[in-house]
Design goal:
13 strands, alpha+beta, 6 helices, Fumarylacetoacetate hydrolase, domain 2
Length: about 260
């Protein structure tokens, strides 16, 4: 994809965000047709938004989600500092399109993982300073939502809307990341449940390993202080409207609350 088309796509996505107008799809002449072009559009959109980056989200971390999106690997998007909140958080529907709620485990890095090399499980684990229970708000400006397909979703910053942190756990290593039970309750009604192994098809930490290597291959890197959320641990998303209250929880780690106004 030539740079003018990348810039055209990013400009259209920026305008839709600024005007809070959903679109069916990017025009065919500037619609990304492969993973590389999709990330080029995302990079251009992020540059236009010019917001402080507080971390990264990893999506489609299990085979079921990848099959739904027609991909064979996860995808990444930036998390912007102005949209990172501590639980309990109140989110304005005026700043969102069609928010979905995912209950996830997130990590904060204590060491840099720079580009230019590859990383293994143990080295990535050694870089982690803390673990958090978290909610990621999945949101995209396409009228068909995730049906827009993997390339357009990546271009739209990986369908990331907002991020809510629970309590920090610095002594995170003893946590049973695979077996820990996760629940999502909306308006006091159970919506979904699952376990940690639903993320990354096993250990949620593998999402971070994938991200470190993906970014390194793109000439990017992770830095100390970055927050990385690793994919949904529940079987299904919850979908929010104004007035809803969503509570995610992990057994032994506590809960995360999001209110939508």
């Amino acid at each position: 994809m030539d740079n003018p088309f990348v810039e055209q796509a990013a400009g259209l996505l920026l305008r839709a965000r600024e005007e809070h107008q959903r679109i069916e799809a990017l025009p065919e002449e500037c619609r990304p047709q492969n993973i590389m072009d999709a990330y080029l559009v995302q990079d251009s959109l992020v540059a236009l938004l010019d917001l402080e980056i507080g971390g990264w989200k990893v999506g489609a971390t299990n085979p079921k989600a990848q099959k739904m999106l027609g991909t064979t690997e996860p995808f990444a998007g930036r998390m912007f500092t102005p949209a990172i909140f501590q639980s309990p958080a109140e989110l304005s529907m005026g700043e969102l399109f069609a928010p979905g709620i995912e209950v996830e485990l997130a990590f904060r890095l204590g060491k840099d993982l720079p580009s230019g090399r590859s990383y293994g499980h143990d080295e990535v684990a050694d870089s982690i300073a803390a673990l958090y229970p978290a909610i990621e708000i999945v949101d995209t400006l396409y009228t068909g939502g995730l049906k827009a397909g993997i390339f357009q979703i990546i271009a739209d910053n990986g369908a990331h809307g907002a991020f809510i942190l629970g309590d920090e756990l610095s002594n995170w290593q003893p946590v049973d990341r695979l077996g820990i039970a996760a629940t999502l309750v909306m308006n006091d009604v159970p919506v979904s449940s699952g376990v940690g192994s639903n993320a990354a098809g096993g250990d949620p930490l593998e999402s971070l390993v994938w991200l470190a290597n993906k970014l390194a291959g793109q000439g990017n890197g992770l830095v100390a202080g970055d927050l990385i959320t690793t994919g949904s641990c529940c079987e299904a998303l919850g979908w929010a409207k104004s007035g809803d209250v969503a509570v995610g929880a992990f057994a032994g780690l506590g809960s995360i609350e999001a209110r939508f106004s």
